[in-house]
């Protein structure tokens, strides 16, 4: 039995790591990661490690999926066989080459050819043992009977080496050249020659490490000068051993999307069509509703749709309209909003997006207490361990449930306005649908806020960023019991005797007998009244600051004292809507605080400044604060969060220095005065909303992609509307459109025509862009994806 953990890597860069699962040969991780991809990559890889206490962690095996193949696995669970980890296959980065084939006239007048290889630079080479590598390159001209090799100088401590070295190779000899030379190459053998560039890390006293290679056939050069970026590739024999042991397998569920986002004006028609959905009568004839109908999985449609409608303040009327349609098919009040309809999924997604801070201020302190100082809470007699006391466990569980419940029912003041507006609409729609049931207006709200929001967050705190990792098995069990209790307490009328008798687990029935008190019912009622009210809440200026992001990074000492050494130290960073702080450890008092209003700019820092990757700088009243994140994803997320919260600062800079001020001058522009104005323009601003990160154009592009992928279903739905309009009689047999909701065939047909027309125009725009992109790209060059994300 061993202790395992899994890492997620973009090429060779680790971006996430799971918790360690101890003493198992079949570990279940059960963790979810969602991240934007800030750079180009070739492989998405997953490495399984055996955790070691005294020695280096052992890599057991890996799953590597090429970027081009990710679409084949997206949205589906798959088992992948673990492959052995071979150093010859562990590559990342790219190399910039200029190649030229010259014709030279010799002294006797004959013609020979010369190959010129200019190796300019490399970018994104991997870290070696957590440090920048010492790279060098070998440049070879390889053929059936020759292998001429030359070597660059070693560049120290950099992942982006600047070589700028030129090498010359004689490709063909003049006719007078002596046959005695073993390097004789006939004219026709040019077809078999290739340029090979290998990148290595100089090991000094140990063996050099292979970093990647590229091969370019000489025949593609013709007589033209040619330069391009080439992605480094593994060796041909890399990871291809003749016999591999069965290393096991890894089950993954990957969702990868890459969108080409055009300028905003291209989306005007589709965006307007979607935003007016709540005004369309009936709602089933609207573009937003049709989107959910044609997508195989409603969730694919819900995420971009909710984000777009939120961004343009159109979500509340749309949710009210689809909820009203949902209620038409609900026959009993006690089953209200219990299914996975478009309405319930929209509300679920809305709560996840706008309720992050609400959950943190409400639940994080008590969840931290449960996870960091756990008390035994098992009350199931079958699962009790030897020596456990069920009475003590029940008291512990009651203590936790009371505390979580108390925090929830006191939290209405922090509930986001959008959530309150949606709950208000749902409450009144439910009362209208079941006028004789006085409790339905409360159960309509509690089915979301308790069952689908707080209870889910309690049982999966890592998913809602309340905890950094999935809790251990015992703590997970405790959270599950608390979540069950919160669901029951929050369900209107669940504490009556008739409800208690319906419990499947006898031990839960016994536990809830202690809760049959009027105060719990009244507390829930008051809380539901508060969160479904449209009355204005306390002004945001009086409430506590919004907690935006926190995590461990490295910062360079700012040298505020004469004896202070300017080295890098690990610190805990915290960003709120009011200040940016760092601490020696989590939950300790801050060592240094920068008020948000004092931040002048947040920009990337050139690697050359300190020979460290993933660095950025926070410019404020004093000297710049230089910070190193743990990977490219983390650096991108911190820069975006800091830029977003400081966007409206009045004194933001227009120019900055992309490198550091060291040894009496700025490395970027060589200015010798530290107060010299920056030499590079600051990057463009990002959206100002500090709690909701939404790019409206990107969400519209995603919706366009969904419509485009499901074009055949749009056409089927269009045909269905035509059939219904022509033939008004009863349907005798199920048909292709029996699963579609068509209340008004004429209105639906009209919307469908608008959607298809808009999608066709966007198709043309994308085709023009792709043609322009492909015509400007040279052989070997690679373009950055405009937008990529993975979960």
From TrEMBL:
InterPro entries: C2_dom, C2_domain_sf, PH-like_dom_sf, PH_domain, Ras_GTPase, RASA2_PH, RasGAP_CS, RasGAP_dom. It comes from the Eukaryota. Residues 1-80, 91-231 form the C2 domain. GO terms for biological process: intracellular signal transduction; negative regulation of Ras protein signal transduction. Residues 766-791 are annotated as: Disordered. The keyword Iron does not apply. This is RAS p21 protein activator 2. The gene is RASA2. Keywords: GTPase activation, Metal-binding, Repeat, Zinc, Zinc-finger. Gene3D superfamilies: C2 domain, GTPase Activation - p120gap, domain 1, Pleckstrin-homology domain (PH domain)/Phosphotyrosine-binding domain (PTB). Residues 546-647 form the PH domain. Residues 297-491 form the Ras-GAP domain. The lineage of its organism: Eukaryota, Metazoa, Chordata, Craniata, Vertebrata. Coiled coil: none annotated. GO terms for molecular function: GTPase activator activity; phospholipid binding; zinc ion binding. It comes from Cyanistes caeruleus (Eurasian blue tit).
